[in-house]
Request: fold
Amino acid sequence: MTEVNRPPRVGGWTRLVTARPGLSLLAALVLTVLAVLAGSGVADRLGSGGWEDPDAESTYATKALEREFPGSQPNLLLLVDSGRASVDAPAVAAEATRLTERLSAEKGVVGVGSYWLTRTPALRAEDGHEAVIAARITGDEKTMGETLDRIAPSYRGTRGPLEVRIGGAVAVRHEMQTIIQEDLTRAEIIALPVTLVLLVMVFGSAVAALLPLGIGIVAILGTNAVLAGLTEFTDVSVFAMNLTTALGLGLAIDYALFIVRRFREELSGGADPTAAIGTTLRTAGRTVLFSALTVAVSLAAMLVFPQYFLRSFAYAGITVVLLAAAAALILLPAALILLGHRVDSLDLRRLFRRGRAKDAGPGTETGTAWGRAATLVMRRAPFFALGTTAVLVLLGLPFLGVRFGTADDRQLPSSAESHVVQQHLRDGFPGTPGGGLEVLAEGRATQAEYAAYKERVAALPEVARVDGPLVNGDSAYFTVQPEGEAVGDAAQRLVGDLRATGAPFDTKVTGAAAVLVDSKDAIGDRLPLAAVFITVVTLLLVFLLTGSVLIPLQAVLLNALSLTAMFGAVVWVFQDGHLSGLLGFTSPGSIETTLPVLMFCVAFGLSMDYGVFLLSRIKEEHDRGGDHEGAVRLGLQRTGGLITAAAVILAVVMVAIGTSRVTNTKMLGLGIALAVLMDAMVVRSLLVPAIMRLTGRATWWAPAPLRRFHQRFGLSEGEPAPAGDREPDPEPDVVGARG
Reply:
């Protein structure tokens, strides 16, 4: 017999987070203040490189050349414009020589040379009105940036008959770091108010809308503090801050949406705040925890790669995901306990709800529409399955023509000084200064052996010129200028040819093209490991959620398929340059090698985030009634509106990140926004119900040993009461909206 008035069971976790809600929030406030202090100025400690493999041949050669031949790889270039006069005019030459000598005396600057000292043709523009002073700033990235800030004002601008602009790798990195910090601040200014407006539209209540935003801010501040601590032990990329903001806001809002939504439903059903929190944590709370683990797994795959650019996103992403989940599962319940029914205060939509009952949250008005849509899709499942798959594959076809390159000055706006300098060098100089290949020779050798090696190198295809050797003890180096672009296909082929050229001494090749070749090799070597890691762990986690063998396979394949539009758009827009004028960037004609890996890991994790919420609802409905098609319909009906709202809000945050003036950040933000919307509005709405209709009851099959494993270790939504002692629940919900 049913005990209608049986008191709800309160789990240990519920007791823990609700016992002292005020104390929990006070402790969180103190920790947040400490995080603000610890994370202040974190951007100044972050690097702007990290694309190279630290164990590669090119990295070894670069460090050896820096040690033995400090001037071999200039990273500071002064572009000297003599106006209408020739760079060989006496007045121009005299002033340029003075600048060269003054730069040689600067602390932290070595290897200074110029056209006026060496008469090297590569340092003089073909029109005779521009020439270059080259040097190397020593130290780590932070020290180089400080040195550049100190000396740049003394050289930039009008100097007698000369106009001087500053470029080179150190200037590009420094300017990129500055712009990223400025753009991130602007993105936050854009995203926060727009997100708040959307949350008010979703929840109606201004109080309820502020809760997810607060959780996101706590996650972001906490991650900044963690990144600041990590900089004491390892290199961290400044680009990771963009992911911190995007995931901190996006995922915290996702998790808080589902928890607040369920809490409000429980209150509207007559539960007191403590009981409502207990039910919320047993259902939506468990799903949030599970979802956070799946996202963290996808991001953790980037740890297998050696480039600190990718590893930085893993550090930031895993931290912000876990902090967002922790805040949503600890701080948010404490706040909801204290607020109780006041969570619906300041209902800004009441003026628009006259004449109809108050809704319980997002998705109520559209739930039946999602149910009808699911019914239609399943009725014509073959058409929707084949049609949607064909469209997604078609959108991804441009990725077959992807070309990989390095991040250079063209990541910056066309008006950026270092971009202007490098573009002048590409367009007007016979060979890009600092853009050639360097061959480090180690071991004793005679001048005749050096000369014979130089002749063999000069005879290689794609070699425009060979300079050197410059000898220092048992070491020497040659500079090899390739035909065409410094990192073009010819230069990359030349790297392999140089490494295959025999010599009576040990040779190591470095330079921009060599770094690119080594980076591609490192990613290619470790990509299978990352893919296997993501696939296996995702299959295991989804199996623990569903107890099915087929559903995990469907989840992995459909998630990967949902990313095709993003990858196709990345190539079509950013590599091929379509919409470059509208979006305001310069296409380098290639995609930076690490970006597809980063975008895949982030987008795959976010797709799993939404997939978990949908699958958990479908699983609960199936376990409750056993009707496969009804479970799919109700699952989409009760989560479709909320998942779409969460995806739109996350897309808004990513688009705000995509307003950056740095092309890689723009690509990341806009690409992830597209992937999120395609996943929520196409894959979850059309492809998932169609495929599950086609697989039918076999969807839930698992062999007996795996069924027993799931019964023992699997995740169950809620805590069902014993048979015959269950309270009637005509319209239960886990994470979605009521139909």
Remarks:
- Confidence is low (pLDDT under 50) at residues 1-10, 354-366, 717-739.
- The longest helix spans residues 169-203.
- The two ends are 29 Å apart (CA to CA).
- DSSP finds 24 helices and eleven strands in the chain.
